[in-house]
Amino acid sequence: MQLKMAMVYIAIVIGVLAALNYYPVSVSEEFVFQSKQDALSARAELYSSTMSGVDELTPETAAHVMSLLDAEETRVLVTDHRMRVLYDSTQGQSLVGSLALLGETRAALEGNDYFYAENSGDAITSVASCPIMIGGVPAGAVCVYDTDMSRAALIADLRRNFRGVSVVVLVIGVGICVIISRIFGRKISELLETMRTVRDGDYACRAEERGDDEFTYLAKELNALSGHFEAVENMRRRFVSDASHELKTPLASIKLLADSMVQSDDVPADTMREFAMDIAEETERLDRLAERMLDITRIDAGVADPAETVDLTAAVERAGRMLEPLAAQQRIRIELELEDGCDIFASEDYAYRVVFNLIENAIKYNRPEGEVRVYLYDKDGEVTLIIQDTGIGIPAEDVSRVFERFYRVDKARSRAEGGSGLGLSIVYDAVRRYGGNITVESEQDVGTRFTVVFPSLKRREGAEK
Ligand code: ADP
């Protein structure tokens, strides 16, 4: 990738430089050629029109006419209609009498004006020719030649300067390309390295977030992703270790009880029955625990029951009825203040479990002869469920942790009540899964209030209409 990027950059630089080298020089050359054409053609025109005034084209008449005109320093050839040279302005090596079988004479004798120029590098040579018309037919040709060394030198200079600048620009450009592609390449390699490390399970690995470019955003996103993985992994580890711990306690009790039953020979039948009942109780606890762990995995995996219309009022009434005997044991009063027809969109089973768990906790962590108040109403597009007790309350430092898995404020009390520390975390996950929210306020020795808010079905229906 590094190499590819560098090659692309260098190709672009070379392309731009080639264009820069070619266009200005060729435009200047073109400009010089044009000015030559204007000057030479005008002169050829002048000579031929003057020459066409003679009766007959001979070396003498041609020389005479040319002597009248000011034939500057350029070479002028005059030929007759057979291309024989009648006049040559060059002194010393005159071509008079010889044949000038040249492109320019041929073109002029065919009745056309002609111009040609070329730049050899050392000199710009150009020629313009015109027919000499006598009696309406081409009787001869005038050719005007020019050799311009100073302008050729100027153009050569221009070309050299552009080449020099191009070489410098190319060297700098290539240098910059190499540096930039190295920097990019290094950043990409660093990100790749971090990705591989994270993929291999080291979720604590982070990419460096330097600067403020796309690579920084990429590094930030990658870090957020690995942070998320790390949190999930920590949660998974904690869950497994907490779960094993929770399973160990009842299993240890069962083993202890079973050992005592096996090892003691003369245990009275009553004690044996007690042991067996204890084993049954511990097994029940294990069963409950397994059930709750399954619930959690189901919600985590998103395979909780699909949502449907649930009458929360009915669910609260049912849970209240079911828990009445438990409350009665502690002489706790359950007061329900429910608005009719509070419908939400959730799973019937989970909605019931949310309500049941919260009322059960309000009874379990209450004081004898205490009170549980449940309010339910549908207002401002939200169904609000409040469960308030006059119980032991939750210490301020624990309030924010009660929704954590296996978290229990008072382990002994929770165990005595048959709790697993998973109830509230299931409640929390279920509420969030169906678009709701749950909060808790508590004062130690005064009571606790859980508030659950679900989007009202009335609002949903209103929005769909
Ligand atoms: P558990 O199975 O132990 O009841 P939960 O997840 O339902 O587990 O509750 C977690 C902890 O939060 C409980 O162990 C308890 O300490 C505390 N808690 C829950 N509800 C109440 C409440 N209404 N009043 C006081 N403490 C509560």
Largest sheet: 5 strands, antiparallel
Number of H/I helices: 12
What top-tier CATH class of the largest domain fits best? Answer: Alpha Beta
- The radius of gyration is 52 Å
Bound molecules: adenosine-5'-diphosphate
Short descriptors:
57% helix; 12 helices; 465 residues; 5-stranded antiparallel β-sheet; alpha+beta; Helix Hairpins; 12 strands; binds adenosine-5'-diphosphate; Beta-Lactamase; 5-stranded mixed β-sheet; 3 domains; Heat Shock Protein 90
Structural write-up:
By secondary structure, the chain is of the alpha+beta class. It has three domains: 2-155, Beta-Lactamase; 214-298, Signal transduction histidine kinase, dimerisation/phosphotransfer (DHp) domain (Helix Hairpins, Orthogonal Bundle); 306-464, Heat Shock Protein 90. The chain is built from twelve helices and twelve strands. It has helices at 2-51, 59-68, 103-109, 149-199, 214-263, 269-300, 312-329, 348-364, 396-399, 411-416, 423-433, 457-464; strands spanning 75-80, 85-88, 114-119, 124-134, 137-148, 308-311, 333-338, 343-346, 371-379, 382-389, 437-443, 447-455. The strands form three sheets. A five-stranded antiparallel β-sheet has the order 2-1-5-4-3, sandwiched between helices. A five-stranded mixed β-sheet has the order 7-9-10-12-11. It has a two-stranded antiparallel ribbon with strand order 6-8. Strand 4 and strand 5 form a beta hairpin. Helix 1 packs antiparallel against helix 4 (149-199) and helix 4 (149-199) runs parallel beside helix 5 (214-263). The radius of gyration is 52 Å and the shape is rod-shaped. The mean pLDDT is 90. The site of adenosine-5'-diphosphate has 23 residues, from helix 8 and helix 11.
